[in-house]
Amino acid sequence: MPGFRRCERELFPSRHATIVTRGRRTPQHPDDFRTEFQRDVHRIIYSQSFRRLRHKAQVFYFPQNDHISTRMDHVRFVASAARTVARCLGLNEDLAEAIGLAHDIGHAPFGHQGEDFLTEIIRMNPPLEAKIPAFSHEVYGLRVVDHIAKRDSEKPGLNLTWEVRDGIISHCGEDYKAYKIAPGSIHKDLENIKSRAEAGNPATLEGCIVRLIDKIAYAGKDIEDAMEAGIIKREDVPDRFRNELGTTNGQIIGKFIEDMIRNSNGRDYICISAELGDLLRDLIQYNRDHIYKSPEAEGYQTQASKGIKHLFYDLSTELRSRDRFRDSHNPDPYENDSVPPVYRFLRDFISKDMKDVYPSGDPDELIVLDFIAGMTDSFAIRSVSDVFIPKMTV
């Protein structure tokens, strides 16, 4: 039923708007009702990898307080703000939203600390390091959407557009200093990028919006979460931030978004003023000193690190001893109540969810890395408990 979809040039009138995609890894026929980037939004939100973000840490491990942000909350905040900025600038709102929703889909359990745990594991396993030199959620996010994420019973891989995939790998969540971002090269070989530095800036203005808003979205919200958790008090926040940005997350985000729109309008780059850029940098530094390095945020880092490492080596041993679960057993040894359930989940991961994804040349450690990186905080902790802590038998 052609004719129902509005012209994208009408929807996104700026001459800098991204209208046509460079394509997908596997070509598909156009949709009669949705733009290509709108289709990506739906592919992302219906994927299992995206849905698991609601149980992955933003700053604090598996918060039991419903008012403390999870990774899912963060990506929704970013996508919403990115869509607002894109609309005001006449850019492609659908593309901005899709990148915003998926930009953190590569995060491991336990947030940025989880990245460090997995990087340490990688560097002690040369065959794995040859595949993935270090764990970067930006670079790994591309692996997730290309090879791992799936929509329930469908095959792995979301087959997203090049522009969304570029926005994911190029969003660089650890860039704390830049306040002016110009699009990077459109000739990147995305599949062969191994580090944040190689990814460079996003190739679209919509991706640049997400890269800058990512920091804005968490800078103020992390303060509110820290107040909710009792780590800091409102009066602890320096007067400079409260006087110039406001006292609530809404005021802080509003101040930055308005400044971004005014300073980026009609330009071929995305920026905030130098004054607010300095404030943003200093605000993030304040958060690092008083929130991210607090006992509440880092108090269980040692236990989490040991747990993830021990789990990795145990599951790798199980995978090798079972020859990647190629041999069927009757009766099934994993149906025994004394066997940790995580072994059965690993078996199902490789033999069902990711069936035929891993060639024989891939090291067993890559399979286990993918399995652990996809875990939620609570499932990771439960798995460690199941494997290493005995249960009562009588």
Give the total of domains: 2
One letter per element, helices H and strands E, the order comes to HHHHHHHHHEHHHHEHHHHHH
Overall mean pLDDT: 92
Low-confidence stretches: none
Distance between the termini: 65 Å
Main sheet summary: 2 strands, antiparallel
Q: What's the CATH architecture name of the largest domain?
A: Orthogonal Bundle
- Cross-sheet strand order for the largest sheet: 1-2
CATH class of the largest domain, named Mainly Alpha
CATH homologous superfamily label of the largest domain: Hypothetical protein af1432
Please provide a written account of the structure.
The chain has a two-stranded antiparallel ribbon. It is mainly alpha-helical. The mean pLDDT is 92. The chain has 19 helices and 2 strands. Helix content is 55%, strand content 1%. The chain is globular. The longest helix has 24 residues, at 205-228. The chain has 2 domains: 9-16 and 34-105 and 149-297, Hypothetical protein af1432; 299-388, no CATH class.
Quick description:
By secondary structure, the protein is mostly helical. Helix content is 55%, strand content 1%.
